[in-house]
Amino acid sequence: ALDAPPPEWTAAPEKSHADGLYNEASDADYEAAEQFCSDHPPDPPRLLPSHTIDRIAAVGCAAWGLDWPNNKRFVGRISNSSEAKGGQAVTRVETEDACGDTCLLSDFPITAGLYDTRGKAGVYFEVTIDWMDANGVIAVGTSSRPYPSWRLPGWNRLSAGLHLDDCRKFFEDPDGGRDYTPLLAPGQVRPGDVVGCGLVFPTSTSTSLSSDAGPRTSAIFYTYNGMRLPDAFKGVYLPRGAHDVYAAIGVSGRTALSVNFGGETFRWKEGNEWAWRVEGHVGQLAAGPSADEELPTYSQAR
Q1: Which residues does the annotated region (Disordered) include (predicted)?
Q2: pTM to 2 decimals?
Q3: Judging by beta carbons within 10 Å of its beta carbon (0-12, 13-18, 19+), is residue 72 exposed, middle or buried?
């Protein structure tokens, strides 16, 4: 089997706070998000269109960017590398004071359930903080689709987030989150800092990357200015083949940031290895007699 048997997900051991340290969403937003998730079940994993696979093959990680949110609360600008002139290698986001809570999702999944992960450790991306106002919030994480666009990552179904104002971590946690690590204290993140997010793929013993490694479950971890921090969550997005997972960037208030999917060198050095590249597993069959067999195109699969 490609994936380890999925254990039942359990909450992180840290105490869950009832309220946010600095900011709180309204009860109306919470109730609307719960209704949204009830009305819209998670999308199943899908084959990527053939033109998307061709683009990834041609430009690699530069194919990834952020979708414009279906959310009138978003007041700002998004400039993807594919849209920018002058060879911009990252996606840039700027928001204004009037910007409300918004979750921006990557246009393509960073891990797609129907594609193979053998030989890969996981996927990784980084966010550089250019500005975060005293009343602003930036959050870095992951999510499946659909996700309520007026909620920050980690607050609702199948979503994780590290909120950089109070440095608490969230996974499907609509309350105040959980303390993450003393290596990242509330108020510590400053302009120029780089926060990375990694999703570790699960393996069985036979598919571990090193001969002396045993099976591992999935995990989400973060990095801070090139230093890998402890795993934030384990046993998430399992079974792996059941989910397409997207990068998720939360913004509120006046902020400026850039998202690096690999177009520029990562601060976390290990992330520059092929085993962590976001484009590394797309286009390879997830199961079957030949691990190297390419997936059929979208038109062929319909």
Answers
A1: 1-24
A2: 0.86
A3: exposed
